[in-house]
Amino acid sequence: DVNTISRRRDMMLATTMIVVAAISSIIAITSNVMDFTKKVDAI
């Protein structure tokens, strides 16, 4: 596009996807750590 509208939109979409992926990974890792600590405390 001449006005680089699609480039901005694509970059915003890619940035949003990266942020969502990072947040979901942090949540998954935190969940695993919490589950592991609960198992260690139960022993």
3D architecture notes:
This protein is mainly alpha-helical and 43 residues long. The protein has a domain at 1-27. Helices cover 88% and strands 0% of the residues. The protein is built from 1 helix and no strands. The protein has one helix at 5-42. The longest helix has 38 residues, at 5-42. It is rod-shaped. The termini are far apart. The model has no long low-confidence stretch (mean pLDDT 87). The chain crosses the membrane at residues 12-34. Keywords: Membrane, Transmembrane, Transmembrane helix.
What keyword list fits this structure?
single chain; 43 residues; mainly alpha; 1 helix; 88% helix
Oligomer: single chain
* Cα-atom radius of gyration: 19 Å
Structural class: mainly alpha
Tell me how many strands there are: 0
Strand content: under 5%
Q: Given the structure, what is the number of helices?
A: 1
Summarize the biggest pleated sheet.
Answer: none
Mean residue pLDDT: 87
User: In whole angstroms, how far apart are the ends?
Assistant: 62 Å
Could you say which overall geometry the principal axes of the C-alpha atoms support? rod-shaped
Low-confidence stretches: none
Helical proportion? over 70%
Order of helices and strands: H
